[in-house]
Amino acid sequence: MNSSGLEEINKVFFIGIGGIGMSALARYLKSQGKVVSGYDKTSTKLTKKLESEGIEILYTDDHAKYPSDIDLVIYTPAIPSSHKGLYWYKEQGFKVIKRSEALGLISENKKCIAVAGTHGKTSTSALITQVLSSSEIAFSSFIGGLMLPNGINYVNRGSEWVVVEADEYDRSFLKLNPDIAILMSMDADHLDIYGDHKSMLGGYWAFIEKIRSGGTLIFKHDLEVLFPDNWKERLKAKKVSHVSFGLENGMAYSSDIQVKDGRFEFSFNWERIKIDQISSSMPGRHNIENSTAAIITGLKLGMAAEDIKKAIGTFKGIFRRFERLFEDEDLVYIDDYAHHPRELDAAISAAKELFPGKKITGIFQPHLYTRTRDFAQEFATALNRLDSIILCPIYPAREEPIPGVTSKIITRCLTNDQVWNLKESEVVNFLKDHKTDVIMTLGAGDIDLLREPIVSWLVSRKNLKR
After folding, report:
1. Which residues contact 295 (CB under 8 A, 6 or more apart)?
2. Nearest CA-CA partner of 38 in 56, 20, 22
3. Considering only CA atoms, which of 12, 17, 146 is closest in space to residue 79?
4. Residue 5: per-residue pLDDT
5. Which residues of 4-21 are buried (b: 16+ CB within 10 A; e: fewer)?
6. Parallel, antiparallel, or unpaired for β 72-75 and 56-58?
7. Residue 466: which pLDDT band, with cuts at 50, 70 and 90?
């Protein structure tokens, strides 16, 4: 099926439509005049929003209730292959493709900016979206998170360029042919797919080699040691240019980092371009790296430095990316999506830099049995930097349990003596008797269900003090 085939498609059914990436695709296809419907396991705020936008959603895996007058089925790899509806559509000979294939079809006849990396994809693609929104550039953007304050994950400002996240899971990013590829990180992850880190690095280089002739690779400078020895020659042969970046290091770099009034401030330098006193509400040095990549992208597309600076300064953040949900004179509550050891370390580092000397309590829900098994020690190393730690049961997502793999394998690696293993339902009552200055919920599963009860308790606590 080629892109013209996608244009000829009229009715599309999504399996797993409530996912962030899937819902963005659904919104795009609906904006193109397609009849869009889908399935998801449970009703959420996002599925209700999609329904309010005219998209019909089923909450059953009984395929007898699924529409049969469908031209195309799109599914997410998060859906198990044993799903009855997915199996039925395949058995009946319907055209069935993964989300990554759909993104590849949408982007193949447009200029494409693809953001790759074990972590940093969503924040960087959202920052690029924010930057490009301050220009006259015609673009659409598919974001793997909800941009604040409006909770949007799909932006449509034209069709010349498209901004996408290049997902390494299941080698999905090999469906893309970007003009600008941005590489944020290549830490070991998804070893259930790749087997080992070396194979995963091979997957990333295969993605880099899909950059179109005349395109650009923008990469974090310390990743160069993981590239093949002849990487420069290989890029040059394809007429692909490159820009390395970092904090204090790289061809383009950010420096003069300081915290001012609860915001991070920094300067940007690249060749003869210098942008001073850029202010960001996104905390942490990792987010300055994300902003640096977004600034380079804007400059590559011909934007003025002052417009880019203003765009970064007015960015409101992303749902569940160091999202500050409550703050008074006694206590701050932050919710973050961190589910890889590096992300966990980055979130905790940002909190320690923003709130020096404050006692920080982290509530962490590990995501996936395989990831917990593979990185138990690395998780413990990151969590040990907290003053106190609450570990919740593993969120399985697409996986079946692995014998002997529970949150307690992380507990056994911890050296911190302030550790509790609790169910999510026990957390709020525990916090009521726990002395702390900063509370953080951390994880990619359903730990966000604690957001509302924790905020409700903190608000009532504040009202009682009046």
Report:
1. 131, 252, 268, 275, 278, 308, 312
2. 56
3. 17
4. 55
5. eebeebeebbbbbbbbbb
6. unpaired
7. low
